[in-house]
Design a protein that fits this description.
With about 220 residues, this protein is mostly helical. It is built from 7 helices and no strands. It has a single domain, classed as Alpha-lytic protease prodomain-like, CATH 1.20.1510.
């Protein structure tokens, strides 16, 4: 019989089977949305959709890493969170570069496709964010997953608004502005995750060896 005080039975523990199940569901949703949104973004010429698709890809990698380190010592979970934060920051810089390139060479995207795909992505991310909400106060690795999901939902709302802006103005500027906002969210979220992971790594380094093994 499982001890009710064991870490594996606590909500928010990396050994919680509910946590693992939520990650598997989130991984499947994000991989599917990455493929669909990237295809739609390339077809419609939307930098915002492409940026959001890259965010889905980054999150898929993050969920896979989280599944790989779930149940390991805190030091490994913190290192995984550090890697995920760096990945988010790199994606943010990439989107900024792609947006600057599009300012000079881009064409007006298809607002109808942007709106439809943006709404679908919003529904998918909102469902994942609600599912992961209960785990938002765990370690840096678990918080990083929640931050990714929250940022994605915010980004999807921005994509839908960008579609309305492109339709109303007849220009690509709303699409490009939202792509830049998504890049800023990625950079901000990545820095936040890396700071939290560095705090945990310092705590592990300062703890006695027997406490580190227990963690």
């Amino acid at each position: 019989m499982a001890c009710p005080s064991c870490a594996a039975d606590k909500a928010g523990s990396p050994n919680d089977p509910r946590w693992r199940r939520a990650l598997w569901i989130a991984l499947a949703v994000n991989l599917a949305m990455f493929g669909g949104e990237m295809f739609a973004g390339l077809s419609a010429g939307s930098k915002a959709l492409q940026a959001d698709a890259l965010d889905f890809l980054g999150d898929s990698a993050n969920y896979a890493i989280s599944l790989g380190v779930a149940g390991l010592a805190l030091v490994w979970r913190a290192r995984a969170a550090l890697l995920k934060g760096a990945t988010l920051a790199v994606l943010g810089f990439y989107v900024i570069g792609a947006t600057l390139w599009a300012i000079w060479n881009g064409e007006r995207p298809q607002a109808e496709v942007m709106g439809a795909v943006g709404m679908l992505a919003l529904i998918a991310n909102a469902a994942v964010a609600i599912m992961l909400y209960r785990f938002r106060s765990g370690d840096a690795n678990m918080r990083s997953v929640w931050i990714c999901s929250r940022n994605d939902a915010i980004g999807n709302i921005a994509v839908v608004l960008a579609a309305a802006g492109v339709f109303g103005t007849g220009t690509a500027w709303p699409d490009l502005i939202v792509a830049a906002i998504l890049a800023g969210l990625g950079l901000s979220g990545g820095m936040h995750i890396m700071r939290a992971a560095q705090v945990e790594l310092r705590q592990v380094a300062a703890a006695p060896s027997h406490q580190t093994r227990h963690a």
